Every structure is written in C-alpha cells, then in structure tokens.
Amino acid sequence: MVMPAYGSGAQPTVWQPISLDELQSLKSELSGKYCFAAGATLLRTQWEGGLIPVPEHMISLARIPGVSGVYVDGDNLVIGALTRLNQCATDIHLQQLPLLQSAMNAIAAPSIRNLATIGGNIVSGVGDSIPALLVYDAQLYWMLDHGMEMRSLSSWLNGGHDGSRNPNEVLISIHIPMKDIPSPDSISEPMSVAREISFYRKLGRREAFTASLVTIAFHGEVGTDGRWNKIAIAAGGGSGMAMRLPESEKLLLGSEVSIMQAPALAAGVVSEFVTYRDAFATEQYRKQTAGNMLGAGHWEALRS
C-alpha cells in the first residue's frame, strides 16, 4: 500500500497513490476524512480564507498515470482531468475547441495556470471552463466507489441542486464528441454548414485577475440556407452554477440568421438565466449583463 508522503501537526497527511486501484483502496481506508488534490490552487485559497476546513488527509492525484494529456479516442476528444490549464490553452487538439481555449486563457494568472488543472476547475462547480464545456456537450468520466461511470456535465451540475453529488467520486477525464467539430486540417466546412459562429466572454470586477461576475459561451452553425441549424448557449460566473439556456437557444434555432435577433436573444437570456446576488452585484445585474454580452456577441459576430 502506498505510504503517506508527508504530514504533521495541523497539516493534513498527504497520500500519493500511483494507480487507480491504490486510490480506490485509500478512499475506503480513510473513510471520508480526506479531500482530493491535483494543482490545489483553489484549495489553498479556500483554506486561507477559512471557507473550508483543512482536512485530516489529502489524496494527491498527481502520480496516477493516464489521467493527464489530450488525445483522440474514436469520435471523442479526451482531456485527462489532471491536464494543466496552460497545456489546454496551447494543445493542438484543442484548437478544434476555440471556446475552451479562450476559457483557459481567461482563468486566473499564468502562474496559476501552470499548476491548476481542468479537472479541478470543473469539480469546483463554478469554474470558468464550464460554460464552454457545456456548449460542447462535454461528458465526464468518473471513478465511483464501485466502478466507473460516464455522466454528462449538465447532469453532474444538476446534482449540485438536488444533492446527488458524491464528494468521494473522482473525475478521471472529460470527453467531447467530435462528430460535428471540424478538423483544423480540413479544407472546407461540411456542405450543410456555411458558417460557424462561436464566442466566449468573461466579465470581472476589474481588469486584473479576479473572480468573474458573468461568463458566457455561444456556439452556432449556420446552414447553407442561411438558417441556424445548431445553437448552444451557456452562462455562469462567480460562485453561481453555470447552465445551458435551452429556451434562449430555441429563439434562434431554425430561424433565418439576422443581426436583428440580438435584442430578442438578450431579453431571452435575462428571463432564463438563473443566478444570484452578493456584495459585488445584484442578481438582476448579472442577468442583464449575461443578456447584453450574448446579444452584443451575436451582433458583433454577424457584423464581422
């Protein structure tokens, strides 16, 4: 059995399993008195701010093979949960997912991105990568207490509302379907798609690194008939949970593409987006900002 790497006094004992089997055994032996860690950038911030207690044990995932890196598996692009944010921002495979790369470059500062992982950003439940992953219909591959399971990002997020999330589960990888994503080496778009329109926006309280107020992502495909044949829209930000906006998507899907749709889209987002208020912004401000950002992005994309 793997031995603890270090730990004494008020500091947690840190365990470093070298396989998924060892990780599963540790989970059973430590009986929930632990937390998982990869880059641990968010954990340190939460501990220092007194937001969560320092656990008795910490299980590092850093030495487990096969849970980092980006590769293609059949019709899916797979991102290991321990892949660093800076690698995601530059990986050649992820050039096919420009919204995700935009999100990576918008998270924290470069020094943090050198340590932080995409899995940690997702498991936080409020990471700025989540809206981009939602519009790409990402699936999450988890190690459960007994076996493995694939689950959509949307369903996992909903588990935060209904209490069905299990903190003992470990995110292993992120799977994104590639069937509808054009290859960067392709010469032209599929004949049924005349144009793709995608944008990602993040608004913070100031220009320097700070938690976001609102984060949005938009991905659409325009058919050769000039109509939207695919639409995916998501919004989140701050400590609020990101969500797809299916009613706002319906406003555009199947309709003729026009910059005149921007006001209706903005209004639809304001009506649908569920968010929160805190000391920095009201709920209505966040809703209005999300609507304005999506309406403006839509207008700018069609004007270019």
Tell me the layout of helices and strands.
Layout lengths: L3 E3 L6 E3 L4 H11 L3 E4 L3 H8 L8 E4 L9 E4 L2 E5 L4 H6 L7 H9 L3 H4 L4 H6 L6 H6 L3 E6 L2 E6 H10 L7 E8 L15 E12 L7 E12 L4 E10 L2 E5 L1 H7 L9 H11 L10 H21 L1
Parallel strand pairs: 2-4, 3-4
Antiparallel strand pairs: 1-2, 5-6, 6-9, 7-8, 7-9, 10-11, 11-12, 12-13
Helix pairs in contact: 9-10, 10-11
Radius of gyration: 20 Å
The total of helices stands at 11
Question: What's the helix-strand series?
Answer: EEHEHEEEHHHHHEEHEEEEEHHH
The side-by-side strand order for the widest beta sheet comes to 5-6-9-7-8
Task: Assign a percent range to the helix content.
Answer: 25-40%
Low-confidence spans:
183-191
Q: What does the average pLDDT come to?
A: 86
What is the strand tally? Answer: 13
Task: Decide which structural class fits the backbone.
Answer: alpha+beta
Distance between the termini: 59 Å
Strand content: 25-35%
Question: The biggest beta sheet, please?
Answer: 5 strands, antiparallel
In short:
With 304 residues, the chain is an alpha+beta fold.
What would you say this structure looks like, in words?
It is built from eleven helices and 13 strands. It is α+β, with helices and mostly antiparallel strands and 304 residues long. The strands form three sheets. A five-stranded antiparallel sheet has the order 5-6-9-7-8. α9 packs antiparallel against α10 and α10 (262-272) runs antiparallel to α11 (283-303). The longest helix has 21 residues, at 283-303. The radius of gyration is 20 Å and the shape is globular. The N and C termini lie far apart (59 Å).
